[in-house]
């Protein structure tokens, strides 16, 4: 199965589908912005409002984390991931870690 075919659900149950639990799956990434974008973000911080460079950073990190979680699920022979969640943390002012995790399942 290709990783793009792995169904990812934030719910515990997929309606109409029976499955067995395989185990936990994870995807993690740590991202940072370049110096120019950090300077721009610092200036925006003075006047307030959304800091788009960091919004983009977190969106990109989220997508990478989900992609890596799907890769992990494929390696385990899963058909889907249920109960998917995110966790994030700042390592420093300009670095963010995002983890996607859930339960890999195999359809019966």
From TrEMBL:
User: InterPro entries this protein is in?
Assistant: UPF0145_dom_sf, UPF0145_YbjQ-like
- Coiled-coil blocks: none
Highest taxon of the source?
Bacteria
The record's family statement is: Belongs to the UPF0145 family.
Q: What is this protein called?
A: UPF0145 protein ACFP1F_07185
């Amino acid at each position: 199965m290709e990783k793009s075919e792995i169904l990812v659900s934030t719910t515990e149950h997929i309606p109409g589908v029976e499955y067995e639990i395989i185990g936990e799956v994870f995807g993690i990434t740590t991202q940072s912005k370049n110096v120019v974008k950090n300077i721009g973000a610092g200036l925006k911080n003075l006047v307030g409002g959304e800091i788009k460079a960091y919004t983009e950073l977190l969106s990109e990190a989220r997508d990478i984390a989900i992609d890596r979680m799907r890769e992990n699920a494929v390696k385990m022979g899963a058909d889907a991931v249920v109960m998917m969640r995110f966790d994030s943390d700042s390592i420093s002012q300009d670095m963010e870690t995002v983890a996607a995790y859930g339960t890999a399942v195999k359809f019966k």
